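Feature request, filed as a ticket because there's no other form

It would be nice if the structure record came with a short human-readable summary line next to the tokens. Right now we just get the raw output. Example of a typical job, pasted below so the devs can see what we mean:
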Amino acid sequence: MAKQNLNIGSSANDGTGDSLRDGAIKLNSVIDELYTNLGNDTNLQINVGSPTTGQFLKWNGSQFAEGALDSLTADLDVAGNKIISSSSGDITIQPNGTGDIKFWGGGTGNALTYIDGDDGKLKYSNHFAASGDLPDNVVHHGMFAYVSGDTTARVATAGGWKKLIGEDHSIGDLGDVDLTVGGGASDGQVLKWDGTNSYWYPANDETASGGGGGTTQNLFETINADSGTTTASAATDTLTIAGGTNISTSIAGDTVTIAMTGSLGAPDQNVFTVIGTDNNSKTASSTTTTINFIGGTGVSTDVAGDNLTITNTSPNVVQNVIQSISGDSGSYTSNSSTGGVEIMGGNGVTTGVASNTLLINAELFMQSGFSVGENKALIFGSNGVESVASGGMGWNIGANGSSAYRFTGPGVNSSTDNPTLYLYRGFTYRFANDTGASHPFAIRVSAGGAAVTDGVSGNQEGVQYYTVPMSLSAGTTYKYQCTVVSHAGMIGDLVIV
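Raw output as currently delivered:
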């Protein structure tokens, strides 16, 4: 019905407006249309009640009332639009129970890509009949696919779809190996490099015919003596063993005999050949030459029987405590009887003297409460070296206000909020919470869930250790989370790999 307005005339009671009957007819028409379009001709079926922001009118079985969208009664057609989130929020798709999350390629057939609700794993079919059916490798860089036509798995790279060699393939499937050269490989042959064609090919391992062995080798390569050396110049080169003065050599069968042909010389030998001192030396001129031991200033000598006695005749003379000291670099020589030497520490070392004791301390020390044991490893803490259960690594934990954790250490960007950390089974990880009690660092099985206790030790407000159990399945994902309720944004993933 078109809109009908009541004619109220030009002025009060001037007789130019609608009569009471005409006005009532128009009003009834409006009421009928409202009850027809907004009700069942008898009752209105819209009740706005007390709506809140974001609600809409929803049929409750008898009338339209305010409500929220919590289920669909038909397929959702986004008509080419996107489903997006605001403020970097997550988009969560969660089926009930063991339901799958399915991704359809077109409107018919089966969903070849889906997340299995039974085990939570992503499963998909990426099969192509021939290599020509593969999509553009540049657009799909990093994609894996299987080509049934040549039974190969492939990965897309900037240079094309590259084959992945598996246990069912031959070395000949490699791009730089050609097994067809010379009619193919034969028993005993090896792979040789062809620099001209830039590939490996089957060939004999020696210049002689056949697959190897049987050629004559040099009996020796190089022979060295007290003076002189010789190198074999050919496979048939000959090594001659010659005798010197009063020495003869002979060969019988496989035996080389070296014999002395001269005399052993005079049985009497000089007791000494040369005696040296600080200033002079003496060379024995005969087997009967005598050496004399004569004392100098403050020293006397005496011989009784087989004993030589050297006596200090001026005892208690002040002597230099040190004469000279040398180090890895540099040295010092005392220039007086009262000369001293300083023992100073370098990097990681300090020294001290108490009474007659010299103390040398290394800054690298085992932190209190830790001990070294079999199958343990060392990790550097803020107060020294700590012993942990296995090979490990650690991070220092900071915060971006009360909205996110930030980490400093291997493999992470210190400016990234709540980064995902990937932990290996059997390794020990050290979490040093520099925020202290402001943001206690909890390791939980899920967001707000129970605390992880197996392998976890230490203090959430200080240093905490996590030795990842070998029993955890790869892909297990735990949460790190601030225990302060108002800091809900300080949460991230710990993924076991």
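Something like this underneath would help us a lot:
The first strand starts at residue 46 and ends at 47.
Confidence is low (pLDDT under 50) at residues 208-214.
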